[in-house]
Amino acid sequence: MKTKSKIISADKKGWSNVEEKIYKTEGSNFKDIKRFSLLDDSIPDLNFHTRYFEIEPGGYSSLEMHRHPHSVIVLKGSGSVILDDQTSTISMHDVIYIAPNTVHQFHADSNDKLGFLCIVDRYRDKPVIPSDDEIRSKIRSENVLKKIRK
Questions:
Q1: Is 118 a known active-site residue?
Q2: Residue 90 three-state SS
Q3: How far is residue 69's CA from residue 121's CA, in Å, rounded to a whole number?
Q4: Of the listed 118, 135, 139, 144, which one is catalytic?
Q5: Domain range list for the chain
């Protein structure tokens, strides 16, 4: 069944008819982050999901990895991202490719909200929180290890 095309209108407060969802249901390895599903299973023709995440200043996403790749586009503010053994500053309009099995974490550490789109395959594995051994095997940089929040 083909889904009819549509527009999800936005204003300064967010998208119309898009509710904030719980970021994660388990764990406490994240802080001050919201999730919004913009294009998801409600559109059966799509092979991907488009989600928007927003992290308050001082907040961060969970440290995790997946077997699937995904792309991220920063729409608001600035911050940093950990990608395995490196940490990089990110800001509006930057595009990030996260390769499979990359340990990653987003931080709103520049006194701005950090807002980004995350596009992933519709059929994907669940995030995995890396063990201390996995972290040590992938991350050698002391600066990155100090930045990680668990």
A1: yes
A2: strand
A3: 8
A4: 118
A5: 19-147
